Amino acid sequence: MGNCFIEYSVLLDKDLQENSNDKVRYEVVEHDGGWALKVGDVLSGRYAGHDEAREAAERAAAEQRLPGETEDIEYQDKARDWHEEVAQGKNRPETDVTG
Question: Which domain does 19 fall in, by range?
Fold first, then answer.
C-alpha cells in the first residue's frame, strides 16, 4: 500500500478547493485487523503495522505540502459521481500527523 498517499493528494486537492480549512490532519487508526491513514472520513488501505502506517502518513503529509504543477484531475465525490477539473499546484495546506 505504499502509494496511497498519491491518491490522497488528489482527493485532498479537491477537498481544499471546496473548503476554507487550510490544515490537513493525517490520523493513524486501527482498521480491518491492521492500521490505516484517515483524513476526515476517508480511510486508506490497510497497513500491517503501526510504524508502516505512520511512515506512510508522514510521507503523505510532507508531499501534500509541496507545491506542484497546475494540472487536470479526476475525482469521485461522495455521491460517487466523477468530475474533471483543474487543480492549482501552488495552494498547499498545512499538515500534521497523529496516532
Answer: 4-98
